[in-house]
Amino acid sequence: QVQLVESGGGLVRPGESLRLSCAASGGRFRSYSLGWFRQAPGKEREFVAGISWNYDATTYTDSVKGRFTISRDNDKNTVSLQMNGLKLEDTAVYYCAADLRLLPEEYEFWGRGTQVTVSS
User: Fold this and answer.
1) For 15, left (φ over 0), alpha (ψ -120 to 50), or beta?
2) Is 52 helix (H, G, I), strand (E, B) or coil?
3) Which residues in 34-71 are b (16+ Cβ under 10 Å) and which e?
4) How far apart are the first and last CA of the chain?
5) 100 vs 10, 57, 73, 110, CA distance in Å?
6) Per-residue pLDDT tens for 47-88?
7) C-alpha 74, offset from chain centre
8) What pLDDT digit, counting tens, does each position of 27-45 carry?
9) CA nearest to 69, candidates 13, 111, 17
């Protein structure tokens, strides 16, 4: 079973950038699909980005395409989310997730989240 810990959240202004990281332990990291999700106040959790175990496939929700980039380092057991051009509506708690299936809709393992606040 893999454990996930997110970091890198913070307070930024619109248009600025932020890089989230997620460190994994306790599992065979390179076997997992990895994803980032977010949950804004009063809203349901939504998928943001995902990356397959072998780097071959990435997927993004439409609202972040061209602004966010997901990447992974199988040697360091980390997955990152580079967020550029942040908007007010990107404010949310961001969660890292892992699953042994290939880019599933639902992920089995979750971190506790890191807060991202975009405010002018």
Assistant:
1) left
2) coil
3) bbbbbeeeeeeeebbbbbebeeeeeebeeebeeebbbe
4) 40
5) 30, 14, 17, 13
6) 999 999 876 799 999 999 999 999 999 999 999 999 999 999
7) 15
8) 888 899 999 999 999 999 9
9) 17
